[in-house]
Structure formats: C-alpha cells, structure tokens
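User: Sorry, what's this?
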Amino acid sequence: HVQLAESGGGLVQAGGSLRLSCVASTNIFSINTMAWFRQAPGKQRELVATITSGGSTNYAGAVKGRFTISRDNAKNTVWLQMNSLKPEDTAVYYCRGLSFPYDYWGQGTQVTVSS
C-alpha cells in the first residue's frame, strides 16, 4: 500500500505563488499516472493536472499556463508549482496515484488565496 503525503499549502495573496509537494512512501516509478485534484467548499473534487511515468502532462483549462506539474521518481515526489494564483484557486489540494488496479490518495493540503 502506497501512502501519499502532501505539503506546501498555505495562505497567499492573489497573484502569488505556492509549490505543493507530494511525497510517496515508496518508489513511484511503477505508478503510471500521478495527479493533483482539488476540492473547493461546496463543490465536487476536480482534476487539476496529471503527469505520466513518461513525463506527459495534462492540465485543466482553468490552470493551464499558470500551474506546472512535475515528478522525480528517484525522490518519490510530485510537485505542483502554482503561479498567478487567484481567489478561485482556493481549495484543498489532493495528490493521487493511479496504476490499475490501484488508486492512492493523499490527505490533502489547504490552499487559500486572498483577494
């Protein structure tokens, strides 16, 4: 069983930046897709970005051009660099690891963007 631990959340003003980290309890080389999701109060959890083991990335339209996902398999870590943050980016951000049939989730880290 793989455990994922997010960190790096916090309170930031609009226009600022944060870098989220997701550290896995074991090697993530075999986990095909790592992803970041977020859930704002009263809303459904939504996909933010994905990255495959080969390095291919995909972004939600709302964050494209502002957020960057990356991974380092040797460090068992996935990052989400968030720039030009907006109040609507406020949410709990979750790390997810997908490798059929396994599906791993972290506990989340709160990101709050003030206007």
